[in-house]
Amino acid sequence: MAVEVEGLVSEYGVLSKEQMEKLAVLRQLVSSYYGIQKVRVAMGNRTTAIVKEYGETEHTKMLKDVYDISEKIEKTIVKYIRSIVKEFPIYTQWLKYVVGVGDVLAAGLIAGIKTPARFSNISKLWHYCGQHVVDGEAPSRRKGAKVDWNPFMRTLCWKLGESFVKTKGFYRSAYDRFRGVEERKSEEGIIRPIDKCIGYVPKDDKVIEVVGDKPLTKSKIEKLKKMGYAELRVGMTKAHIHARAKRKTVKLFIAHLWHKWREIEGLPITKPYAHALLGHSDFVEPPEPVGGKI
């Protein structure tokens, strides 16, 4: 239900017009940063190739100048992001300490989520971020169908996962643990419906005799279905294992963010997400800074 807040009809009921404006500006700055960064990187690669082919000339220098200008724009955007994001307690009290979450990612999370009051439990926030499951699988886009999650947040979660893998903080350690679990699970083999085995590696000797030991393709699946197979015991590729471990790491981080943010805002907190994510009763408390880092 919409609530009137300082003359602004807000579906969240707790955000002022000034807060909404800051969030809108942050969102645009973050989107612009990643857009310009993508163009700059592509242009840099292409410029390098052109210079390699034609050498340093007056004209290739123009490309280098444009590249430098785009780099300056990125730095300006980051400066503006830092000036706004430090006004949010969740950033100053927790996010800024998390290794792997820089100012741009932190700003994206704050601008995308807006307030933890929107999500009464972690499952709702996972869904909003595209980190839920549909029939046991990660959700995917379908042509002509609307998604019920936020594409901006899902992209941000992917960037978060990649960033955590490249660091040495708490969440890199969590990734390593999750990866170990997925590797053991893959080695033992997973029983899956045959239609969901494309891209997986056969673990059953009889199946291997028929289609080999490489990742299963659609044509191989069809061959096995004609032979009467309804399920297969399969393992995962390294890419599968990496993606699953990364996704679990991101879900753990999002759960911790939800917990800390609601704690800071004085909102009630529930704990069942730890059971759902980790599969046991041990509650994983959000980590606190040690030596200024998490």
Task: Offer a concise description of the structure.
The chain has 294 residues and is mainly α.
Description:
The chain has eleven helices and five strands; from the N terminus they run E-E-H-H-H-H-H-H-H-E-E-H-H-E-H-H. With 294 residues, it is mainly alpha-helical. Among the domains are: 87 residues; 62 residues, Molybdopterin biosynthesis moea protein, domain 2, CATH 3.90.105. It has a three-stranded antiparallel sheet with strand order 3-5-4. It has a two-stranded antiparallel ribbon with strand order 1-2. Helix 1 packs across helix 4. The longest helix has 38 residues. The two termini are 37 Å apart. The N terminus is likely disordered.
